Amino acid sequence: MEEIIKKLINSDLKTVEAATGIPYDRMYKWIKGKGNPKIEDYNILVAYFDGSSSINNVTGKQFKTAIIEKYPDISEAAKELGLNPEELLKIFKKAKVTENVLEEAYYKLGIVVEGHSVIKPEGIVRNLYSEPKGIPMYSDKAAASAVELYNDEASDQEPAFFVSIPQFADCDFGKMIFGHSMYPTYESGSYAFMKRVGDLRQVSPGEVYYIETTYLKVTKRLQYGKLGFEDDHFLAMSDNEEKRPDGGFRYETFPIFKEDIKALYIVKGALKQNQN
């Protein structure tokens, strides 16, 4: 693990992100000592740095554990794999499980077996069991009101589900909006689709962004300060013009300092459910 972290420290993380699909922000946290890669990411990084075409260290015992965890009755699993129980038992005893069996287990049973990843022909490294199924949607929420304290583990969560919408195909992920500060543009309970902005110079004043800083996560419309882009902060503005009894705006504008921004995503749209 330490060797992988050292290699990341000496690498261009944007290049690694482009090649592996592992988010820059996640790797940045690792090199800063905030957690370690999960087994899937670790295997991808090993394959990337070693330049090997595949990693398959799955033993029959590991395969058996993964199967039984989901299918206590192995005859049911064998049937789905097109095998008889005796054939499956033989695989459990092997020192190494073959590629085709692992792929069948994933595509037919939806079983993830640790220790197996591949590099696709085009050179893009992907874990076999993390093939894109659409846009990943996360259950943690993107605050649209006031401030949500930063949860350092939020971006490491597994997706709650995936969606496939052509208009948002270039988005990195989606999160649920909660709070009413961005009403009527984005209603509380709708899912917003986010696309990463890699350079603060790409910010378009007046657009809505999801911002993660060292102390908050929030969805706001960004504007420049008085000095334009040269200013040291953006103005985070709300769309909801509701007023307090004293006449002031309930959701007031506040500054977000550029040096505090850890991740920035433009909100390209939202999905709303009207009825259960």
From TrEMBL:
CDD domains: Peptidase_S24_S26. It comes from the Bacteria. This is Peptidase S24/S26A/S26B/S26C domain-containing protein.
